[in-house]
C-alpha cells in the first residue's frame, strides 16, 4: 500500500466535529446547515481557483456535515425526551430489546439494542444501545405464547428478543450507551435469534465448550485469539495481558481479517478460481467472520478496510493504505457518530495508522543494527505502541516498560493460534475429532502468549508513572513526534529534532519530579480517612491514633496492597466487609493475615463462607454484624446501623450492606471527624434507614453504590456531610457516578470526591470547626 494523506486530514476534522456534537446533539441541525453551506461555497471556489487547500477544506466541511446530519437524525430516536423523563422519575417500566452480547448468569450486565419502552400501557419506540444490569442466578424463560422455552446451555446468545421490568438511568448525550437498564425481575425470552445469527451463536458455544478442557492460560486465551471471545479469561490473566500491552491480541482486528481473506485468496488461487470469484467469496467469508466474532468497533473497522481493499483489487486500482483507513473510519462515523468517543474504535484506527505511517521507516532505521526480519518484528509493535500510547494514557496514566518486547516475543505465536483456532472452530461443527485435535494444537501458541503476558506482568517496574489527563497526552504526543522525527528525518533536521527531544524530555522529567515532590510535601500527616483508588469498588481506611479500620477491599488485591503501603498501614484492627459483591471483597487476599477483627454482613454462597474461613485460619476474629453492635477505634466509637433484624424480606447483597457510623468519643483530645459508610444500600433501604434512626450529622459520608441513581436524597440531607467519598472506576460502564447522584450531593451541600478523577483521597481535620482539609494525588485541595 502507498501513502495518500489527502483524505486523512478532512476525516480527522469530521471526527472532531462528531466528538463535539454527540455531546450537544441539540446543535446538530444548525451545525449541519452551516457545514453544508460552507462545503458548497468552498467547493465552488475550489473549482474556480483550482486550489488544493480550498478543495481539502470543502471536503472537510462536507464530511463534517455528514456526521452532523447523522447525529441530528439519530439523536431523538436514540435518546428521546420521553426516555429521559422516565429515567428522571425512576419509575418501573417494561423494556423490549434484542441482545447484542452474550447473556450469562455469572455476568451482571449485558449489551442490548432497545426497541421500545412500555409504561402505563403506552409504548415509546426506541433505537437505543443500552447496558442491562441483572442480579439473577437464572434467566426468565417465558415465551411469547406462554410456553416454556429453555435457552440452550447457561447463556443467551446474540439476537435474542427479550423483555424485562426495570428502572432506567439516562446517560450523558455523548456516551456510547443511551440508557442503563436496571432489571427488577428476570429478563424474559421472547423470540429466538434469526437463523442468520443463531448459527454463529452455536459455533461460539461449541468452541467455548471444547476449549473448557484446555488447561491454564492457554485455554483461557484461545477463544480470544481465534474468535475474539474473552469470556473464559479470568481477571488475573486479563490484568496481565493489559499490563504487558498484549490485550490487543484478543481483540479481533485487521490481522485476523487479513488472515481470513489471505487464506481464501491463496486457496482459491491454488484451485485456479477466477480473481473476481475469489474476491466475492472473500467478502462473503469476511461477512460470516464478522457475525461469528461479533461486530465490535475494531472488527467493523478491520472488515470494512479489508472489503475496500478487495474492491480495489477487483477494479485494478492501486491500494493506498491511509486512504482506505480514512474511508473506512468516516464511513463508520457517519453510520454511528457515537463511535467518535469509543476508545476501542480510536485505538484500532490509531494502531493501523501507526503501522501504515511508521512501521516501514522504523524498520529501515533498525536495519542498520538488526537483520531485516527482526527489524520488521520490532518495528510493527513499536509503531502501534507509539501511535496508541497517547490515547491509552486517558485509560491508564502509565507507560509500559516491556510492551514492545512482550509483543516481539508473542508476535510469532499469535497468528498460529488464530489460524489453527479458526480451523478448529469450523472443524468442530463438521468433524469434531479433527476440531478437538486442532484446538489442542492451537493451545500451544496460546499458552505461550499467556506465559509471556504473565512473565512481564510480574516483572519489576512493569509500568512507568506519567501525568494524568490531557496534560500527559499532549506532553507524550510532543515527545513521540520529536522521537519519530529524530529517527526518520535526515541530517541536519535529525540532529535538530534530537536536540529538541532531549530538552523537552528533560523538562518533562523535571516537571514530573516536581509534581512528585510537591505531592510528598503536601501529604497531610494527620489524615483520618483515606479513599483508595482501587478501580470500580470501595476501599476506605479510617485512622484514629494508632488504630485503623478498613471498610471493604475493592476488587483488586494488588491495587489495595499498593494503597495500604503508601499509607503505611501494615495492621488492620477492624476490617468491615459490608457485603460480598466482588467490588467490595475481591481484594481481600491483600489483607489476609493482617486483620484482627472482621465484621461481616450476611453470606449468600459457599464462596463467601470460604473467604471467612480463610480469615479465621489466618488468625482473625470473624463477627456477623447486627444493628446495635458497638465498639471503639482509637478516639472514635463505631456502631452498626443496619441490617440486623431488618433483614426480613431482604436478600443478602446490596440492601443487606453493613452500615457503619463512626462518631468521636467524649474523650477525643483532638478534632475527630465523624462518618457514615452506606455500602451499596438502595433507595428503599435508605428510606427505611432514615425512618428507623435519628441520624447524626457527620463530616464524611461514603456515598452508596458508587454514586448510582438508586439514592434517597433525604438521607443525605439528614447527614449534612461536608464530603462524600465515591469509590468508582474510570470508564466503568455503569455510568457511575450518575448525574442525578452528583446533583443530589451538590444540592445537599456535599462535596463529591471521586477515586476515578481524584485518585487517592485523604481527609483531615481543618483548623475551624465543621470544616475538613482535602488532599488528592491529582488535585491538592484545601478546606471544605
UniProtKB/TrEMBL annotation:
Residues 536-693 form the Metallo-beta-lactamase domain. It holds the Pfam family Lactamase_B. InterPro entries: ComA-like_MBL, ComEC_N, Competence_DNA_uptake, Metallo-B-lactamas, RibonucZ/Hydroxyglut_hydro. SUPFAM superfamilies: Metallo-hydrolase/oxidoreductase (SSF56281). It comes from the Bacteria. It is found in: Cell membrane. Its main location: membrane. The chain crosses the membrane at residues 12-41, 53-75, 249-269, 276-293, 299-315, 322-339, 345-366, 373-392, 404-431, 438-457, 469-488, 500-523. Keywords: Cell membrane, Membrane, Transmembrane, Transmembrane helix. It is a multi-pass membrane protein. The keyword Transmembrane helix applies. This is ComEC/Rec2 family competence protein. It comes from Rhodoglobus aureus.
Amino acid at each position: 500500500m502507498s501513502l495518500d494523506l489527502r483524505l486523512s486530514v478532512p476525516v480527522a476534522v469530521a471526527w472532531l466535529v462528531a466528538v463535539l456534537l454527540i455531546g450537544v446533539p441539540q446543535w446538530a441541525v444548525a451545525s449541519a446547515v452551516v457545514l453544508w453551506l460552507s462545503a458548497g461555497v468552498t467547493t465552488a471556489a475550489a473549482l474556480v481557483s483550482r486550489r488544493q487547500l480550498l478543495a481539502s477544506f470543502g471536503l472537510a466541511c462536507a464530511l463534517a456535515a455528514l456526521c452532523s446530519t447523522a447525529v441530528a437524525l439519530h439523536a431523538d430516536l436514540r435518546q428521546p425526551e420521553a426516555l429521559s423523563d422516565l429515567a428522571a422519575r425512576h419509575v418501573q417500566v417494561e423494556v423490549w430489546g434484542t441482545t447484542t452480547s452474550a447473556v450469562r448468569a455469572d455476568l451482571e450486565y449485558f449489551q442490548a439494542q432497545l426497541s421500545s419502552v412500555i409504561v402505563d400501557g403506552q409504548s415509546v419506540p426506541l433505537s437505543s444501545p443500552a447496558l442491562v444490569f441483572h442480579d439473577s442466578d437464572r434467566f426468565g424463560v417465558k415465551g411469547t405464547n406462554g410456553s416454556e422455552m429453555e435457552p440452550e446451555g447457561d447463556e443467551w446468545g446474540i439476537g435474542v428478543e427479550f423483555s424485562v421490568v426495570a428502572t432506567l438511568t439516562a446517560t450523558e448525550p455523548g456516551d456510547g450507551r443511551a440508557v442503563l437498564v436496571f432489571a427488577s425481575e428476570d429478563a424474559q425470552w421472547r423470540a429466538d435469534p434469526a437463523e442468520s445469527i443463531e448459527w454463529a451463536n452455536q459455533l461460539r458455544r461449541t468452541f467455548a465448550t471444547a476449549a473448557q478442557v484446555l488447561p491454564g492460560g492457554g485455554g483461557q486465551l484461545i477463544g480470544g485469539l481465534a474468535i475474539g471471545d474473552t469470556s473464559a479469561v479470568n481477571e488475573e490473566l486479563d490484568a496481565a495481558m493489559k499490563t504487558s500491552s498484549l490485550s490487543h491480541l484478543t481483540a479481533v482486528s485487521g490481522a485476523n481479517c487479513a488472515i481470513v481473506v489471505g487464506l481464501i485468496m491463496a486457496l482459491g488461487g491454488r484451485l485456479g478460481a477466477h480473481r473476481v470469484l475469489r474476491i466475492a467469496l472473500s467478502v462473503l467469508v469476511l461477512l460470516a467472520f464478522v457475525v461469528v466474532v461479533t461486530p465490535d468497533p475494531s472488527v467493523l473497522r478491520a472488515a470494512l478496510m479489508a472489503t475496500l481493499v478487495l474492491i480495489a483489487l477487483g477494479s485494478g486500482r492501486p491500494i493506498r493504505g491511509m486512504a482506505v483507513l480514512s474511508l473506512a473510519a468516516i464511513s463508520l462515523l457517519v453510520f454511528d457518530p457515537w463511535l467518535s468517543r469509543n476508545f476501542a474504535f480510536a485505538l484500532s484506527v490509531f494502531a493501523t495508522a501507526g503501522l501504515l505511517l511508521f512501521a516501514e521507516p522504523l524498520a529501515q532505521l533498525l536495519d542498520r543494527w538488526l537483520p531485516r526480519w527482526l527489524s520488521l518484528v520490532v518495528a510493527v509493535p513499536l509503531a502501534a505502541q507509539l501511535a496508541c500510547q497517547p490515547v491509552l494514557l486517558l485509560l491508564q496514566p502509565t507507560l509500559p516498560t516491556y510492551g514492545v518486547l512482550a509483543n516481539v516475543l508473542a508476535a510469532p505465536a499469535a497468528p498460529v493460534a488464530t489460524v489453527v483456532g479458526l480451523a478448529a472452530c469450523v472443524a468442530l461443527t463438521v468433524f469434531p475429532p479433527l476440531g478437538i485435535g486442532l484446538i489442542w494444537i492451537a493451545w500451544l501458541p496460546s499458552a505461550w502468549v499467556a506465559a509471556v503476558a504473565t512473565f512481564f506482568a510480574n516483572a519489576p517496574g512493569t509500568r512507568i508513572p506519567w501525568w494524568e489527563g490531557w496534560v500527559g497526552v499532549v506532553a507524550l504526543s510532543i515527545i513521540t513526534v520529536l522521537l519519530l522525527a529524530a529517527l526518520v528525518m535526515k541530517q541536519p533536521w535529525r540532529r535538530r529534532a534530537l536536540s529538541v527531544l532531549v530538552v523537552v524530555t528533560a523538562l518533562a522529567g523535571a516537571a514530573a519530579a516536581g509534581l512528585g515532590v510537591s505531592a510528598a510535601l503536601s501529604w497531610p500527616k494527620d489524615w483520618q480517612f483515606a479513599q483508595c483508588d482501587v478501580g470500580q469498588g470501595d476501599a476506605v481506611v479510617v485512622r484514629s491514633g494508632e488504630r485503623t479500620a478498613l471498610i471493604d477491599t475493592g476488587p483488586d488485591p494488588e491495587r489495595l496492597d499498593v494503597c495500604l503501603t503508601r499509607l503505611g498501614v501494615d495492621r488492620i484492627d477492624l476490617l468491615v466487609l459490608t457485603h460480598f459483591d466482588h467490588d467490595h471483597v475481591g481484594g481481600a487476599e491483600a489483607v489476609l493475615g493482617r486483620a484482627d477483627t472482621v465484621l461481616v454482613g450476611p453470606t449468600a454462597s459457599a464462596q463467601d463462607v470460604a473467604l471467612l474461613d480463610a480469615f479465621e485460619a489466618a488468625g482473625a476474629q470473624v463477627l456477623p454484624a447486627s444493628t446495635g453492635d458497638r465498639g471503639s477505634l482509637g478516639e472514635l466509637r463505631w456502631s452498626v446501623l443496619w441490617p440486623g433484624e431488618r433483614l426480613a424480606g431482604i436478600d443478602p447483597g446490596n440492601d443487606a450492606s453493613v452500615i457503619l457510623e463512626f462518631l468521636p468519643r467524649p474523650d477525643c483530645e483532638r478534632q475527630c471527624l465523624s462518618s457514615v459508610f452506606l455500602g451499596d444500600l438502595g433507595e428503599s433501604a435508605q428510606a427505611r434507614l432514615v425512618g428507623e434512626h435519628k441520624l447524626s450529622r457527620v463530616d464524611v459520608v461514603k456515598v452508596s453504590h458508587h454514586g448510582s441513581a438508586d439514592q434517597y436524597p433525604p438521607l443525605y440531607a439528614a447527614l449534612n456531610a461536608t464530603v462524600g467519598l465515591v469509590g468508582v472506576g474510570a470508564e466503568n460502564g455503569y455510568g457511575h457516578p450518575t448525574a442525578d447522584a452528583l446533583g443530589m450531593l451538590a444540592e445537599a451541600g456535599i462535596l463529591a470526591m471521586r477515586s476515578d478523577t481524584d485518585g487517592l483521597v485523604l481527609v483531615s481535620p481543618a483548623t475551624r470547626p465543621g470544616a475538613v482539609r482535602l488532599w488528592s494525588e491529582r488535585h491538592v485541595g484545601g478546606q471544605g
